[in-house]
Amino acid sequence: MNNLETYQNFYFVGIGGIGMSALARYFHASGKKVLGYDKTNTKLTQLLMSEGIDIVFEDVIDDKITSLQKEKTLVIYTPAIKKLGILDYFNENDFKVKKRAKVLGLITESTDCIAVAGTHGKTTTSTLVAHLCKEADLPFSCFLGGISENFKSNFLFNGKEFSVVEADEYDRSFLNLSPDWAVITSTDADHLDIYGDKNTIEEGFRQFAALVPEDKQLFVRKGIEIGRAHKTYAVNEVADYYSDNLRMDYDKIYFDFHTPANDRHSELVEEFVWDVPGIHNVENATVALAILHNLGVDFETLKKAIANFKGIKRRYTKHIYSSGKIYIDDYAHHPTEINAVVGSIKTFYPDKKLLVVFQPHLFSRTRDFVDGFAESLSNSEELILLDIYPARELQENFEGITSDWLLEKVTLDKKEISGLSEAFNKIKEKDFDILLTVGAGNIDTLYDPICEWLIGNK
Protein backbone atom coordinates (compact mmCIF):
# COMPACT_ATOMS: atom_id res chain seq x y z
CA MET A 1 0.00 0.00 0.00
CA ASN A 2 2.36 2.69 -1.27
CA ASN A 3 4.64 3.47 1.68
CA LEU A 4 1.97 3.48 4.41
CA GLU A 5 2.91 -0.02 5.54
CA THR A 6 6.39 1.17 6.47
CA TYR A 7 5.03 3.28 9.34
CA GLN A 8 4.43 1.76 12.77
CA ASN A 9 2.97 4.87 14.44
CA PHE A 10 0.19 7.18 13.26
CA TYR A 11 -0.39 10.47 15.09
CA PHE A 12 -3.66 12.29 14.27
CA VAL A 13 -3.85 16.04 14.87
CA GLY A 14 -7.59 16.66 15.17
CA ILE A 15 -8.46 13.00 15.70
CA GLY A 16 -12.04 13.72 16.83
CA GLY A 17 -13.24 14.76 13.38
CA ILE A 18 -15.58 12.35 11.65
CA GLY A 19 -13.21 11.75 8.74
CA MET A 20 -10.07 11.66 10.87
CA SER A 21 -11.54 9.17 13.32
CA ALA A 22 -12.42 6.74 10.51
CA LEU A 23 -8.79 6.79 9.33
CA ALA A 24 -7.57 6.34 12.90
CA ARG A 25 -9.80 3.29 13.27
CA TYR A 26 -8.48 1.88 10.00
CA PHE A 27 -4.84 1.97 11.08
CA HIS A 28 -5.76 0.73 14.55
CA ALA A 29 -7.58 -2.23 12.95
CA SER A 30 -4.48 -2.84 10.82
CA GLY A 31 -2.39 -3.37 13.96
CA LYS A 32 -0.62 -0.01 14.00
CA LYS A 33 -0.03 2.21 17.03
CA VAL A 34 -2.50 5.11 16.83
CA LEU A 35 -2.55 8.20 19.04
CA GLY A 36 -3.61 11.78 18.64
CA TYR A 37 -4.80 15.17 19.81
CA ASP A 38 -8.10 16.97 19.78
CA LYS A 39 -9.15 20.16 21.51
CA THR A 40 -12.48 18.72 22.70
CA ASN A 41 -13.38 15.48 24.46
CA THR A 42 -16.55 14.25 22.77
CA LYS A 43 -18.55 11.03 22.60
CA LEU A 44 -16.55 10.12 19.51
CA THR A 45 -13.15 10.63 21.15
CA GLN A 46 -14.37 8.67 24.17
CA LEU A 47 -15.30 5.79 21.86
CA LEU A 48 -11.89 5.91 20.21
CA MET A 49 -10.20 5.76 23.62
CA SER A 50 -12.39 2.83 24.66
CA GLU A 51 -11.13 1.03 21.54
CA GLY A 52 -7.53 1.47 22.69
CA ILE A 53 -6.50 4.70 20.92
CA ASP A 54 -4.49 7.16 23.06
CA ILE A 55 -5.80 10.75 22.87
CA VAL A 56 -4.76 13.98 24.62
CA PHE A 57 -6.74 17.22 24.80
CA GLU A 58 -4.01 19.74 25.63
CA ASP A 59 -1.61 21.27 23.13
CA VAL A 60 1.46 20.05 25.02
CA ILE A 61 4.60 18.28 23.78
CA ASP A 62 4.58 15.29 26.14
CA ASP A 63 6.84 12.24 26.36
CA LYS A 64 4.48 10.22 24.14
CA ILE A 65 5.27 12.66 21.36
CA THR A 66 9.01 13.04 22.02
CA SER A 67 9.46 9.27 22.15
CA LEU A 68 8.13 8.83 18.60
CA GLN A 69 10.74 8.04 15.95
CA LYS A 70 10.22 10.20 12.88
CA GLU A 71 11.24 7.42 10.48
CA LYS A 72 8.49 5.16 11.83
CA THR A 73 5.78 7.79 12.36
CA LEU A 74 3.29 9.40 10.00
CA VAL A 75 1.52 12.52 11.23
CA ILE A 76 -1.95 13.15 9.77
CA TYR A 77 -3.79 16.45 10.18
CA THR A 78 -7.07 18.02 9.17
CA PRO A 79 -7.25 21.34 7.27
CA ALA A 80 -9.49 22.60 10.10
CA ILE A 81 -6.30 22.86 12.21
CA LYS A 82 -4.72 26.24 11.50
CA LYS A 83 -2.10 26.73 14.24
CA LEU A 84 -1.00 24.27 16.91
CA GLY A 85 2.15 23.71 18.95
CA ILE A 86 1.99 19.92 18.45
CA LEU A 87 1.82 20.32 14.67
CA ASP A 88 4.68 22.85 14.77
CA TYR A 89 6.78 20.33 16.69
CA PHE A 90 6.29 17.63 14.07
CA ASN A 91 7.07 20.01 11.20
CA GLU A 92 10.14 21.50 12.90
CA ASN A 93 11.53 18.03 13.65
CA ASP A 94 11.14 16.76 10.08
CA PHE A 95 8.39 14.21 10.67
CA LYS A 96 6.43 13.12 7.62
CA VAL A 97 3.20 15.17 7.82
CA LYS A 98 0.25 14.66 5.47
CA LYS A 99 -3.30 15.95 5.13
CA ARG A 100 -6.08 13.49 5.88
CA ALA A 101 -7.26 13.59 2.26
CA LYS A 102 -3.79 12.64 0.96
CA VAL A 103 -3.62 9.59 3.23
CA LEU A 104 -7.12 8.47 2.30
CA GLY A 105 -6.10 8.87 -1.32
CA LEU A 106 -3.14 6.55 -0.80
CA ILE A 107 -5.45 3.89 0.64
CA THR A 108 -7.78 4.12 -2.36
CA GLU A 109 -4.87 3.62 -4.77
CA SER A 110 -4.42 0.01 -3.65
CA THR A 111 -8.12 -0.93 -3.45
CA ASP A 112 -11.10 -1.02 -5.79
CA CYS A 113 -12.46 2.27 -4.54
CA ILE A 114 -16.17 3.12 -4.49
CA ALA A 115 -16.30 6.90 -3.93
CA VAL A 116 -19.53 8.81 -3.28
CA ALA A 117 -19.49 12.56 -3.91
CA GLY A 118 -22.13 15.28 -3.83
CA THR A 119 -23.07 18.38 -1.87
CA HIS A 120 -26.09 16.44 -0.53
CA GLY A 121 -26.70 12.75 -0.06
CA LYS A 122 -23.15 11.45 0.04
CA THR A 123 -23.21 10.32 3.69
CA THR A 124 -26.45 8.37 3.35
CA THR A 125 -25.42 6.87 0.01
CA SER A 126 -21.91 5.86 1.08
CA THR A 127 -23.21 4.40 4.35
CA LEU A 128 -25.87 2.45 2.47
CA VAL A 129 -23.29 1.14 -0.02
CA ALA A 130 -21.13 0.03 2.93
CA HIS A 131 -24.12 -1.65 4.57
CA LEU A 132 -24.97 -3.53 1.36
CA CYS A 133 -21.33 -4.59 0.99
CA LYS A 134 -21.38 -5.87 4.56
CA GLU A 135 -24.61 -7.82 4.04
CA ALA A 136 -23.15 -9.31 0.83
CA ASP A 137 -19.94 -10.13 2.77
CA LEU A 138 -17.66 -8.35 0.29
CA PRO A 139 -14.03 -7.78 1.42
CA PHE A 140 -14.11 -4.04 2.03
CA SER A 141 -13.26 -1.22 4.42
CA CYS A 142 -15.40 1.92 4.63
CA PHE A 143 -14.62 5.52 5.58
CA LEU A 144 -17.84 7.40 6.27
CA GLY A 145 -18.89 10.93 7.21
CA GLY A 146 -21.53 9.74 9.67
CA ILE A 147 -22.19 7.04 12.24
CA SER A 148 -23.98 4.01 10.79
CA GLU A 149 -26.85 2.89 13.01
CA ASN A 150 -26.23 -0.70 11.84
CA PHE A 151 -22.59 -1.03 12.89
CA LYS A 152 -22.46 1.98 15.28
CA SER A 153 -19.35 3.45 13.68
CA ASN A 154 -18.07 5.55 10.80
CA PHE A 155 -15.64 2.77 9.93
CA LEU A 156 -15.87 -0.94 9.27
CA PHE A 157 -13.04 -3.34 8.45
CA ASN A 158 -14.08 -6.41 6.46
CA GLY A 159 -11.05 -6.71 4.18
CA LYS A 160 -8.96 -4.55 1.84
CA GLU A 161 -10.07 -5.50 -1.69
CA PHE A 162 -12.66 -2.69 -1.83
CA SER A 163 -12.84 0.67 -0.11
CA VAL A 164 -16.08 2.63 0.29
CA VAL A 165 -15.30 6.30 0.73
CA GLU A 166 -17.31 9.45 1.28
CA ALA A 167 -15.67 11.83 -1.20
CA ASP A 168 -15.61 15.26 0.44
CA GLU A 169 -15.65 18.29 -1.86
CA TYR A 170 -14.53 20.65 0.93
CA ASP A 171 -11.00 21.94 0.28
CA ARG A 172 -11.15 19.86 -2.96
CA SER A 173 -10.22 16.83 -0.85
CA PHE A 174 -11.96 14.39 -3.22
CA LEU A 175 -9.42 15.13 -5.95
CA ASN A 176 -6.87 13.11 -3.93
CA LEU A 177 -8.86 9.88 -4.39
CA SER A 178 -8.41 7.11 -6.96
CA PRO A 179 -12.00 6.00 -7.60
CA ASP A 180 -12.79 2.90 -9.63
CA TRP A 181 -16.53 3.31 -9.05
CA ALA A 182 -17.96 6.72 -8.30
CA VAL A 183 -21.27 8.44 -7.61
CA ILE A 184 -22.20 12.10 -7.93
CA THR A 185 -25.47 12.78 -6.12
CA SER A 186 -25.66 16.58 -6.48
CA THR A 187 -23.57 19.60 -7.42
CA ASP A 188 -25.50 22.40 -5.72
CA ALA A 189 -23.56 25.45 -4.63
CA ASP A 190 -21.89 25.06 -1.22
CA HIS A 191 -18.52 25.79 0.37
CA LEU A 192 -18.38 29.07 -1.53
CA ASP A 193 -15.64 30.16 0.89
CA ILE A 194 -13.49 27.60 -0.97
CA TYR A 195 -14.90 27.65 -4.51
CA GLY A 196 -16.18 31.21 -4.86
CA ASP A 197 -19.18 30.48 -7.11
CA LYS A 198 -21.44 27.71 -8.43
CA ASN A 199 -19.55 27.33 -11.72
CA THR A 200 -16.29 26.65 -9.89
CA ILE A 201 -17.79 23.98 -7.64
CA GLU A 202 -19.36 22.32 -10.68
CA GLU A 203 -15.93 22.31 -12.32
CA GLY A 204 -14.56 20.63 -9.17
CA PHE A 205 -17.07 17.80 -9.58
CA ARG A 206 -16.15 17.44 -13.26
CA GLN A 207 -12.51 17.08 -12.22
CA PHE A 208 -13.56 14.41 -9.73
CA ALA A 209 -15.55 12.57 -12.42
CA ALA A 210 -12.50 12.61 -14.69
CA LEU A 211 -10.59 10.56 -12.10
CA VAL A 212 -12.75 7.49 -12.84
CA PRO A 213 -11.10 5.31 -15.53
CA GLU A 214 -13.07 5.00 -18.76
CA ASP A 215 -13.41 1.23 -18.31
CA LYS A 216 -14.93 1.65 -14.84
CA GLN A 217 -18.34 2.97 -13.75
CA LEU A 218 -19.48 6.50 -12.95
CA PHE A 219 -23.08 6.98 -11.74
CA VAL A 220 -24.57 10.48 -11.86
CA ARG A 221 -28.04 11.62 -10.85
CA LYS A 222 -30.00 12.33 -14.01
CA GLY A 223 -29.95 16.00 -14.97
CA ILE A 224 -26.40 16.74 -13.83
CA GLU A 225 -23.99 17.59 -16.66
CA ILE A 226 -20.62 16.11 -15.79
CA GLY A 227 -18.70 16.28 -19.07
CA ARG A 228 -17.96 12.59 -19.69
CA ALA A 229 -19.66 9.25 -20.28
CA HIS A 230 -21.58 7.91 -17.28
CA LYS A 231 -24.60 5.95 -16.12
CA THR A 232 -27.62 7.91 -14.90
CA TYR A 233 -30.00 7.17 -12.05
CA ALA A 234 -33.28 8.74 -10.99
CA VAL A 235 -36.62 8.31 -9.24
CA ASN A 236 -39.95 8.45 -11.08
CA GLU A 237 -38.31 9.08 -14.45
CA VAL A 238 -36.56 6.75 -16.85
CA ALA A 239 -32.77 6.58 -16.51
CA ASP A 240 -30.15 3.86 -16.84
CA TYR A 241 -31.11 2.81 -13.31
CA TYR A 242 -34.33 4.11 -11.79
CA SER A 243 -36.93 3.47 -9.15
CA ASP A 244 -40.63 4.12 -9.44
CA ASN A 245 -44.04 3.04 -8.14
CA LEU A 246 -43.29 4.57 -4.73
CA ARG A 247 -45.88 3.79 -2.07
CA MET A 248 -46.03 4.71 1.57
CA ASP A 249 -47.58 2.46 4.20
CA TYR A 250 -47.32 3.91 7.69
CA ASP A 251 -43.61 4.72 8.07
CA LYS A 252 -42.36 2.39 5.33
CA ILE A 253 -41.64 3.20 1.70
CA TYR A 254 -42.06 0.62 -1.07
CA PHE A 255 -40.49 1.04 -4.50
CA ASP A 256 -39.63 -0.91 -7.66
CA PHE A 257 -36.15 -0.91 -9.20
CA HIS A 258 -35.21 -1.01 -12.90
CA THR A 259 -31.87 -1.96 -14.47
CA PRO A 260 -30.85 -0.60 -17.91
CA ALA A 261 -33.03 -1.59 -20.85
CA ASN A 262 -29.95 -2.40 -22.94
CA ASP A 263 -28.45 -4.60 -20.23
CA ARG A 264 -28.69 -8.29 -21.11
CA HIS A 265 -29.59 -8.85 -17.46
CA SER A 266 -32.24 -6.13 -17.59
CA GLU A 267 -35.05 -6.65 -15.17
CA LEU A 268 -37.69 -5.06 -13.02
CA VAL A 269 -37.34 -5.89 -9.34
CA GLU A 270 -40.52 -5.18 -7.40
CA GLU A 271 -41.24 -4.42 -3.78
CA PHE A 272 -38.09 -3.08 -2.19
CA VAL A 273 -39.09 -1.79 1.22
CA TRP A 274 -37.39 0.32 3.87
CA ASP A 275 -38.27 2.89 6.50
CA VAL A 276 -35.92 5.74 5.52
CA PRO A 277 -38.26 8.57 4.46
CA GLY A 278 -38.02 10.95 1.54
CA ILE A 279 -37.84 10.67 -2.24
CA HIS A 280 -34.24 11.90 -2.05
CA ASN A 281 -33.37 8.83 0.02
CA VAL A 282 -34.98 6.53 -2.55
CA GLU A 283 -32.61 8.20 -5.03
CA ASN A 284 -29.71 7.31 -2.73
CA ALA A 285 -30.97 3.72 -2.51
CA THR A 286 -31.31 3.53 -6.30
CA VAL A 287 -27.67 4.30 -6.99
CA ALA A 288 -26.47 2.08 -4.14
CA LEU A 289 -28.44 -0.81 -5.65
CA ALA A 290 -26.99 0.00 -9.08
CA ILE A 291 -23.43 -0.30 -7.74
CA LEU A 292 -24.03 -3.58 -5.94
CA HIS A 293 -25.87 -4.96 -8.99
CA ASN A 294 -22.76 -4.19 -11.05
CA LEU A 295 -20.62 -5.93 -8.42
CA GLY A 296 -22.66 -9.07 -9.02
CA VAL A 297 -24.69 -9.17 -5.79
CA ASP A 298 -28.07 -10.89 -6.22
CA PHE A 299 -31.31 -9.00 -5.65
CA GLU A 300 -32.55 -11.34 -2.93
CA THR A 301 -29.56 -10.36 -0.80
CA LEU A 302 -30.06 -6.69 -1.65
CA LYS A 303 -33.75 -6.75 -0.74
CA LYS A 304 -33.00 -8.15 2.70
CA ALA A 305 -30.17 -5.66 3.19
CA ILE A 306 -32.29 -2.65 2.20
CA ALA A 307 -35.05 -3.76 4.56
CA ASN A 308 -32.73 -3.90 7.59
CA PHE A 309 -30.86 -0.66 6.90
CA LYS A 310 -31.28 1.51 10.00
CA GLY A 311 -29.85 4.73 8.62
CA ILE A 312 -27.21 7.12 9.96
CA LYS A 313 -27.04 8.88 13.26
CA ARG A 314 -28.32 12.46 12.89
CA ARG A 315 -29.76 11.73 9.44
CA TYR A 316 -33.49 11.79 10.17
CA THR A 317 -33.00 10.02 13.50
CA LYS A 318 -36.59 9.57 14.70
CA HIS A 319 -38.22 8.68 18.02
CA ILE A 320 -41.95 8.25 18.69
CA TYR A 321 -43.06 8.57 22.32
CA SER A 322 -46.02 7.21 24.26
CA SER A 323 -47.31 10.78 24.59
CA GLY A 324 -47.76 10.84 20.81
CA LYS A 325 -44.96 13.36 20.30
CA ILE A 326 -42.31 12.71 17.64
CA TYR A 327 -38.69 13.87 17.85
CA ILE A 328 -36.47 14.00 14.75
CA ASP A 329 -32.80 15.00 14.76
CA ASP A 330 -30.96 15.75 11.52
CA TYR A 331 -27.56 17.06 10.38
CA ALA A 332 -28.96 19.18 7.51
CA HIS A 333 -27.10 22.49 7.17
CA HIS A 334 -27.99 23.65 3.64
CA PRO A 335 -31.40 24.94 2.45
CA THR A 336 -31.83 22.04 0.02
CA GLU A 337 -31.22 19.56 2.85
CA ILE A 338 -33.62 21.32 5.22
CA ASN A 339 -36.29 21.34 2.50
CA ALA A 340 -35.81 17.59 2.05
CA VAL A 341 -36.17 16.87 5.78
CA VAL A 342 -39.13 19.17 6.34
CA GLY A 343 -40.74 17.92 3.13
CA SER A 344 -40.47 14.33 4.35
CA ILE A 345 -42.05 15.26 7.68
CA LYS A 346 -44.91 17.07 5.97
CA THR A 347 -45.47 14.12 3.63
CA PHE A 348 -45.70 11.59 6.46
CA TYR A 349 -47.42 13.85 8.99
CA PRO A 350 -49.33 16.56 7.10
CA ASP A 351 -51.63 17.50 9.98
CA LYS A 352 -49.10 17.67 12.81
CA LYS A 353 -47.67 20.86 14.28
CA LEU A 354 -43.92 21.15 13.60
CA LEU A 355 -41.43 23.01 15.80
CA VAL A 356 -38.00 23.48 14.21
CA VAL A 357 -34.87 24.29 16.21
CA PHE A 358 -32.10 25.23 13.77
CA GLN A 359 -28.45 26.12 14.32
CA PRO A 360 -26.85 27.78 11.27
CA HIS A 361 -23.36 26.43 10.48
CA LEU A 362 -20.75 29.00 9.37
CA PHE A 363 -21.17 32.72 8.84
CA SER A 364 -20.16 32.34 5.19
CA ARG A 365 -22.83 29.71 4.47
CA THR A 366 -25.48 31.79 6.25
CA ARG A 367 -24.48 34.81 4.15
CA ASP A 368 -24.36 32.91 0.86
CA PHE A 369 -27.72 31.14 1.26
CA VAL A 370 -29.70 33.41 3.58
CA ASP A 371 -32.77 33.61 1.34
CA GLY A 372 -32.83 29.85 0.84
CA PHE A 373 -32.56 29.28 4.59
CA ALA A 374 -35.36 31.74 5.26
CA GLU A 375 -37.63 30.03 2.73
CA SER A 376 -36.94 26.50 4.01
CA LEU A 377 -37.36 27.49 7.67
CA SER A 378 -40.69 29.17 6.89
CA ASN A 379 -42.26 25.79 6.10
CA SER A 380 -42.77 24.86 9.75
CA GLU A 381 -45.31 26.17 12.27
CA GLU A 382 -42.76 27.55 14.73
CA LEU A 383 -39.02 28.24 14.77
CA ILE A 384 -36.34 28.59 17.43
CA LEU A 385 -33.24 29.91 15.67
CA LEU A 386 -29.94 29.42 17.48
CA ASP A 387 -26.84 31.56 17.19
CA ILE A 388 -24.57 30.81 14.22
CA TYR A 389 -22.01 28.08 14.91
CA PRO A 390 -18.71 29.57 13.70
CA ALA A 391 -16.55 26.42 13.36
CA ARG A 392 -13.37 27.61 11.63
CA GLU A 393 -14.58 31.20 11.03
CA LEU A 394 -14.21 34.42 13.03
CA GLN A 395 -17.30 36.58 13.51
CA GLU A 396 -15.36 39.83 13.09
CA ASN A 397 -14.77 38.86 9.45
CA PHE A 398 -18.53 38.73 8.78
CA GLU A 399 -20.02 41.99 10.00
CA GLY A 400 -23.83 41.96 10.05
CA ILE A 401 -24.12 38.21 9.40
CA THR A 402 -26.17 37.11 12.42
CA SER A 403 -29.09 34.88 13.29
CA ASP A 404 -31.18 38.02 13.92
CA TRP A 405 -30.57 39.04 10.30
CA LEU A 406 -31.69 35.61 9.09
CA LEU A 407 -34.73 35.57 11.40
CA GLU A 408 -36.03 38.84 9.93
CA LYS A 409 -36.35 37.10 6.56
CA VAL A 410 -38.32 34.11 7.93
CA THR A 411 -42.04 34.62 7.29
CA LEU A 412 -43.41 32.72 10.30
CA ASP A 413 -45.41 34.48 12.99
CA LYS A 414 -43.98 32.24 15.71
CA LYS A 415 -40.23 32.64 15.62
CA GLU A 416 -37.48 33.60 18.07
CA ILE A 417 -33.75 33.64 18.69
CA SER A 418 -32.11 31.56 21.39
CA GLY A 419 -28.66 30.73 22.66
CA LEU A 420 -27.84 27.03 22.77
CA SER A 421 -27.81 26.98 26.58
CA GLU A 422 -31.36 28.39 26.80
CA ALA A 423 -32.84 26.35 23.96
CA PHE A 424 -33.82 23.25 25.94
CA ASN A 425 -35.91 25.22 28.44
CA LYS A 426 -37.62 27.09 25.58
CA ILE A 427 -38.43 23.80 23.82
CA LYS A 428 -40.11 22.47 26.97
CA GLU A 429 -42.46 25.47 26.97
CA LYS A 430 -43.66 24.93 23.39
CA ASP A 431 -46.81 23.25 22.10
CA PHE A 432 -45.82 20.89 19.25
CA ASP A 433 -46.58 17.48 17.78
CA ILE A 434 -43.21 17.05 16.09
CA LEU A 435 -39.87 18.53 17.18
CA LEU A 436 -37.04 18.79 14.64
CA THR A 437 -33.54 19.75 15.78
CA VAL A 438 -31.37 20.43 12.77
CA GLY A 439 -27.84 21.68 12.09
CA ALA A 440 -24.19 20.62 11.82
CA GLY A 441 -22.61 22.40 14.80
CA ASN A 442 -22.96 21.51 18.47
CA ILE A 443 -26.77 21.42 18.47
CA ASP A 444 -26.36 17.67 18.96
CA THR A 445 -25.75 18.39 22.67
CA LEU A 446 -29.52 18.93 22.95
CA TYR A 447 -30.26 15.39 21.78
CA ASP A 448 -29.86 13.44 25.04
CA PRO A 449 -31.70 15.98 27.27
CA ILE A 450 -34.60 16.15 24.81
CA CYS A 451 -34.88 12.35 24.58
CA GLU A 452 -34.82 11.98 28.39
CA TRP A 453 -37.45 14.71 28.79
CA LEU A 454 -39.77 13.23 26.16
CA ILE A 455 -39.45 9.74 27.63
CA GLY A 456 -40.62 11.09 30.99
CA ASN A 457 -43.26 13.38 29.47
CA LYS A 458 -46.20 10.97 29.49
Description:
With 458 residues, this protein is an alpha/beta fold. It contains 16 helices and 21 strands. The model has no long low-confidence stretch (mean pLDDT 91). It starts with 8 loop residues before the first strand and ends with a helix. The chain has helices at 18-29, 43-50, 63-66, 85-92, 100-109, 122-135, 192-195, 198-209, 279-294, 299-307, 335-348, 363-368, 370-377, 403-409, 420-428, 447-456, and strands at 9-13, 33-37, 54-56, 73-77, 96-99, 112-117, 140-148, 153-157, 162-167, 181-184, 217-221, 231-235, 241-249, 252-258, 268-274, 317-320, 326-330, 354-359, 382-386, 415-418, 434-439. The longest helix is centred in the middle third of the chain and has 16 residues, at 279-294. Helices cover 33% and strands 25% of the residues. Helix 6 (122-135) packs across helix 9, helix 6 crosses helix 10 (299-307) and helix 11 packs parallel to helix 13 (370-377). Strand 2, helix 2 (43-50) and strand 3 form a beta-alpha-beta unit.
What class do helices, strands and sheet pairing give? alpha/beta
Whole-number average pLDDT? 91
Outline the biggest β-sheet: 10 strands, mixed
Radius of gyration: 22 Å
Number of helices: 16
- Assign an overall shape: globular
Beta-strand portion reads 25-35%
Distance N terminus to C terminus? 56 Å
* Oligomeric state, counting identical vs distinct chains: single chain
Binned, the helix content reads 25-40%
Which spans have pLDDT < 50 for at least 5 consecutive residues? none
Number of DSSP-assigned strands = 21
Adjacency order of strands in the biggest sheet: 8-7-9-6-10-11-12-13-14-15
